[in-house]
Amino acid sequence: MTELDTPPMTEEHDPASPGAGRTARETPEPPEPPTGPPGGPPSGPPPAPSAGASAAPRPSRRRRWLTALVIFLLIAIPAGYIVISAEQSRDSGQSKEEEAASTGLYNDYPSKVQQRIYNVPVPTGATPVYYYESNAWHRSSLYVQFRTNDWGLDHYLKWIGTSRDALKDGEITITGAQAAKVGWDLSGGQWAGTSLKAEDPHPSQNITVNFDEPGQPVVYVVSTVRFER
After folding, report:
1. Which of 221, 224, 210, 225 is nearest to 159 (CA)?
2. Which of 13, 14, 121, 144 is deepest in the core (most CB within 10 A)?
């Protein structure tokens, strides 16, 4: 090889060069660790929040107002219904007391217990229905008045142990004192009645029926239970 063919000596191949044996590209050095005491937080100011980050949303005054309104309504509405129901119940009780004081009758069905004790099973669908109960030491009586139809009358008489054949035309079995006690007017019209006697303490009944309106008889009953002395 001639002198002209010899490649030029570079720093990489020159053994006398300070950078001999090293590659031309230097490897980047690792970053320095953060300063500060061992095990503690890094020194220096904390990183500033990014521009896109925002603080937690705070409830608006409108939302707080709506929440308070909903809570108020949840408490106030049921309380209002209770007050209204109590007022209606009181008014209903007062009207019934006034009605009973004037005529002695309540515009309602006797309770199931009363119907069973006095053997006065008011037919289903009877309307209007009135009743009054009189209690004493040795005797209690249930006064009942109701309008029904022919079917209701026949079934009522059958339930208490009698029939329409037992009704005597023109006979009013309820006494004047009994009628006056509850304000019944049993004068005039087409009447028929019967009486059922039973041994104490079973109830005895005076039954009087008005037939002025065909197909809509009105039944008047006084059922009395006597107690042994």
Report:
1. 221
2. 144
